[in-house]
Amino acid sequence: MRMFRIMALAFTLLLALSGVNPVLAQDQQPQPAPQDLFLFTRYPVQEATIGDPVTIRLTLGSDTTPQIVRLAVRDLPEGWNASFRGDGKTVQAAYVAPKSDASLDLRIEPPENASAGDYRLTVVARGSAREVTLPIELILKAKEKSSAGLSFKVDLPMLRGTPDTTFRYNVTLKNESDQETPVSLLAEAPRGFLVDFRLSGQSITSVPFGPNESKSLSIEVKPFPDMPAGKYEITVLAQGGESQATTRLVAELTGQPKVVLTTPDGRLSGEARIGEKTAFTLIVQNTGSAPARNIQLSAVPPAGWTVEFEPKQIPELNSNQRVEVTANVQPSNQAIAGDYVVTFVARPDEGASESTEFRVTVLTSTLWGLVGVALIAVAVFGVGMAVMRFGRR
Q1: What torsion, rounded to 10 degrees, do the Cα atoms 126, 130, 134, 135 define?
Q2: Residue 106's beta-bridge partner residues?
Q3: What confidence tens digit (pLDDT) does each residue in 332-364 have?
Q4: Rounded Cα distance, 106 and 45, in Å
Q5: How crowded is residue 204: how many other Cβ atoms within 10 Å of its Cβ?
Q6: Which of 240, 235, 264 is nearest to 251 (CA)?
Q7: How far apart are alpha carbons 362 and 276 in whole angstroms?
């Protein structure tokens, strides 16, 4: 026991003479020195395609000093563009606070004529007391050529209109090959549609393309007036040599009423007498692809005439439906015998109005006919009496 105490005392004395505290030696770990400015990115080496912009995420911060840090790019190749963006805006500097990192994007835009290869540039952050740099490496690769060689881009592939609408689609067609190519244009449309390709206002069926050339075309699609409502697909094909491209267009036809005004037998003429009402039967028919609603009936007669309809309004007329309407026409009392024109009008709430000219032959009134007959009879009687009286003398 005494031996154990002597050994413990000797070990303690040895540690005291060496100046080592075993507990402190275990707890103390090396700590990184605080930095007043730092700049880094997780991906300092990136691949890109010639002509395509590159966006690199940067992190900027400070452990000790709040400051405004100005940003720049060194060793940028000639013809390249570089800009810094924060919160969607182009910036030239960023504010950093201790323990609060700032994130921003470096946008690099190589030109279309850049050569493939490795490019090295440096991002510079200049703070209030020091400057830090970040090397960036971009590996540019040539753009892979499209296997099709042609590509379509359509601004609005789906349009809506009535059967009277001419649908116009704005299309960009590009030859993505490095050779001059004549391109033929074809369209596959449902029955009842006409398709026309136009370039600078001229109708075309083919167009030459230079290497990597783009052209803006207009594709006009016109349906027949009697096409029913619905969605119709038009497939457009561009073919040049062994290359081809297709795109799909959609024309949505909405229903449209079309009112027709006629008579049961198709005759647009009749007879009427002065001062008397004469009934004419009219047929109002909807030949459109949508119901015609609130059809108002009216007329444009000669001066002094009256025209009344039974009924005056048709609430609704479905597609291919027809109704009979009576038009009571009364010529003016001052009218004289002869031919006159009355215009009948049917006007729906939606769609075009329809008008029909109706020729009315005016006859003298039956009363005046009887008066005439009576006057003739009186005249004959008077002549007869005169002959009898003077003939005896």
Answers
A1: 100
A2: 56, 84
A3: 988 898 999 999 999 998 878 899 999 999 997
A4: 13
A5: 14
A6: 235
A7: 10
